[in-house]
């Protein structure tokens, strides 16, 4: 078979992955594949704007969200090489408004700092991405906080706070806006002429796609977001520019050691591995190491995937929230590497027969942690903190979260339990929650957190329990729902136009048994204290 025919077959297989989005009136995605430094495939599917009928093309810009983080880290590493920044320093050395917490800049780059995510801090006060906020509001959320999720360096937990603060430190040292620093030091030298950081959400950006939610069955709608963005996720870019950036890993010109510094290993304090390096994650695709990062923002999803040993890069960027670039990028990489002797055979898929006996709701009170496991749409789905994610097969009988942003793996344990690996060597025993307890009658009251300035007023409404939420940026809004779990834990569901999150609250009692506080845990905040006021 000639190379031309092989290429034609590859192109048809890739196109088949995106065929639902080539139909009239649908948003879609753009795909770029680079082999050996040459662009082997670059094509758009669907519309950049449904309203205007503009198709997605290779030069269409998208919000690439958290793929931005590696660029923020790169700028910081450049400043460190010039002696202007020390990675072992705490962030409050450069931003004195911050609480003097025992965190280093290097730990921030590796998502092992323990700093709570500022998006979660604001959400606990009732504020979401669809409501207006100013840059100073986001920074204030960081300065109010005195809480660490865990001892710095001991665990991995994804937090946008790390990179928002890193971007502000860069601005202070360079005495320039972060977007200007990135343009002067990275984008212009590399020829990434369609990449920029524009924090203002109302700025005019040429060729920028519109982000959409929903699907063809439910109908498409424009995604709403009103938060300014910085070093944590503010870039707009194109598929071709990200391929240019990927080539810099192979042939660095900005600094010979930059790629090695981005992927440098640093074990956690307990000696366990942290697969999140500096702004990039290191994972595996059928025996081949991958380096990359995903991005998620209302209406936009990105996957930047490198397979260094195969000299392969795949970039998928979508302007529809229901498209999964993580899976599609790996499916495309597997097609591109078909016949590669280094590729291990794919593990058998997870079956419904395996999930049926262990489906249901599982709970560990000490963590605390709660999740639902179910077979949905032909795959095993875990829903935790309101977020669903799929499980894939791993060695040793484990079923693990596919994406590196979640540390989660499970397998059956003794006597009807589940063993759940939550990262950093923490393998906990979960029991099936067959029956929920009622919400404790003495829970009603007002609870306040100094770390996020949230005020929660919990009350009973007939048989149901509800919670009125206020914070530094908002008061009022739809009540949150409170449900019982056991005598000492409740689950709280917060409404949202994009994500409906849940959080657990452990009831802290004094010696007399009176509830004096709640310890609240979300996906990116662990055991934050809300003191009872009444």
TrEMBL record:
**Beta-lactamase-related domain residues:** 15-330
PANTHER family recorded for this chain? BETA-LACTAMASE-RELATED DOMAIN-CONTAINING PROTEIN (PTHR46825:SF9), D-ALANYL-D-ALANINE-CARBOXYPEPTIDASE/ENDOPEPTIDASE AMPH (PTHR46825)
Species for this entry: Reyranella humidisoli
Q: Which InterPro entries match?
A: AmpC-like, Beta-lactam-related
**Superkingdom field:** Bacteria
Name listed for the protein in its UniProt record: Beta-lactamase family protein
Pfam family of this protein, just one?
Beta-lactamase
Transmembrane stretches in the record are: none
């Amino acid at each position: 078979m000639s190379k031309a025919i092989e290429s034609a077959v590859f192109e048809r297989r890739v196109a088949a992955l995106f065929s639902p989005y080539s139909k009239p009136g649908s948003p879609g995605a753009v795909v770029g594949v680079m082999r050996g430094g040459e662009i082997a495939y670059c094509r758009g599917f669907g519309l950049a704007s449904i309203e205007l009928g503009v198709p997605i093309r290779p030069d269409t810009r998208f919000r690439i969200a958290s793929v931005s983080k590696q660029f923020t880290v790169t700028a910081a590493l450049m400043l460190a090489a010039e002696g202007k920044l020390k990675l072992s320093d705490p962030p409050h050395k450069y931003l004195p408004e911050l609480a003097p917490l025992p965190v280093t800049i290097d730990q921030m780059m590796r998502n092992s700092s323990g700093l709570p995510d500022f998006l979660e801090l604001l959400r606990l006060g009732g504020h979401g991405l669809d409501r207006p906020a100013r840059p100073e509001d986001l920074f204030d959320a960081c300065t109010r906080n005195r809480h660490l999720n865990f001892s710095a360096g001991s665990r991995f937990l994804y937090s946008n706070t790390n990179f928002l603060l890193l971007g502000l430190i860069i601005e202070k040292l360079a005495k320039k806006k972060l977007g200007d620093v990135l343009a002067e030091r990275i984008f212009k030298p590399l020829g990434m002429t369609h990449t920029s950081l524009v924090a203002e959400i109302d700025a005019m950006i040429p060729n920028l796609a519109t982000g959409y939610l929903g699907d063809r069955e439910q109908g498409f709608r424009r995604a709403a977001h009103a938060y300014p963005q910085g070093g944590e996720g503010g870039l707009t870019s194109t598929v071709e520019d990200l391929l240019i950036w990927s080539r810099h890993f192979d042939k660095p010109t900005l600094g010979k050691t930059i790629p090695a510094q981005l992927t440098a290993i640093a074990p956690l304090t307990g000696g366990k591995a942290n697969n999140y390096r500096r702004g990039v994650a290191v994972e595996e695709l059928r025996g081949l190491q991958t380096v990359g990062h995903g991005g998620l923002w209302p209406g936009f999803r990105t996957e930047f995937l490198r397979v260094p040993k195969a000299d392969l890069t795949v970039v998928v960027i979508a302007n529809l929230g229901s498209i999964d670039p993580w899976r599609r990028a790996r499916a495309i990489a597997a097609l591109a590497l078909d016949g590669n002797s280094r590729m291990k055979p794919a593990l058998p898929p997870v079956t419904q027969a395996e999930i049926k006996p262990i489906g249901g709701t599982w709970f560990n009170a000490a963590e605390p942690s709660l999740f639902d496991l179910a077979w949905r749409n032909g795959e095993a789905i875990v829903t935790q903190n309101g977020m669903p994610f799929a499980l894939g097969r791993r060695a040793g009988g484990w079923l693990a979260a596919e994406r590196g942003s979640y540390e989660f793996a499970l397998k059956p344990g003794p006597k009807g339990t589940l063993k759940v690996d939550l990262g950093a060597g923490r393998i906990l025993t979960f029991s099936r929650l067959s029956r929920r307890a009622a919400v404790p009658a003495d829970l009603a009251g007002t609870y306040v957190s100094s770390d996020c300035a949230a005020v929660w007023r919990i009350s009973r409404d007939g048989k149901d329990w509800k919670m009125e939420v206020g914070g530094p940026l908002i008061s009022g809004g739809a009540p949150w729902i409170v449900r019982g779990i056991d005598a000492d834990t409740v689950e709280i569901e917060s409404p949202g136009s994009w994500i409906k999150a849940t959080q657990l609250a452990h009831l802290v009692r004094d010696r007399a048994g009176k509830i004096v506080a709640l310890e609240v845990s979300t996906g990116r905040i662990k055991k934050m204290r809300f003191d009872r006021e009444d």
